[in-house]
Write a structure and sequence with these properties.
The chain has about 120 residues and is mostly beta strands. The protein has strands spanning about 1-5, 10, 15-25, 30-40, 45-50, 55-60, 65-70, 75-80, 90-100, 110-115, 115-120. The protein contains no helices and eleven strands. The chain is globular, with a radius of gyration of 13 Å. The termini are far apart.
Length: about 120
């Protein structure tokens, strides 16, 4: 499956952004979907994940209550709504697809990755 992330940009602290990730090439609903991020000089970290049907979601503690992951299987798209953004949310955000049976938060479980979209939060 090919993934194309979009929606990044520059926003002030406290602001909001919505990231989108459009999938093509294979049956989108067969994949758990996740968002990860990598800040400059840091390792990639898990942000959020959503199950195939959208009924189960996982979040990193650092974004819980501020970010919401959702998906529209009819549009082959997964979203990440980010509210109350903080400077420490600054990173390149990647969407990823996992074909496994169980949904994990480890990046190594994901089979396909998008190219990333940069989110910069100014203080």
């Amino acid at each position: 499956v090919q993934l194309q992330a979009s929606g990044g940009g520059l926003v002030q602290a406290g602001g909001s952004l919505r990231l989108s990730c459009a999938a093509s090439g294979r049956t989108f609903r067969n994949y758990h979907m996740g968002w990860f991020r990598q800040a400059p000089g840091k390792e990639r970290e898990f942000v959020a994940a959503i199950s195939r049907g959208g009924s189960v979601t996982y979040y990193a503690d650092s974004v819980k209550g501020r970010f919401t992951i959702s998906r529209d299987n009819a549009k082959n798209t997964v979203y990440l709504q980010m509210n109350s953004l903080k400077p420490e949310d600054t990173a390149v955000y990647y969407c990823a697809a996992d074909s496994g049976i169980v949904m994990y938060t480890e990046g190594s479980s994901y089979d396909f990755w998008g190219q990333g979209t940069l989110v910069t939060v100014s203080s």
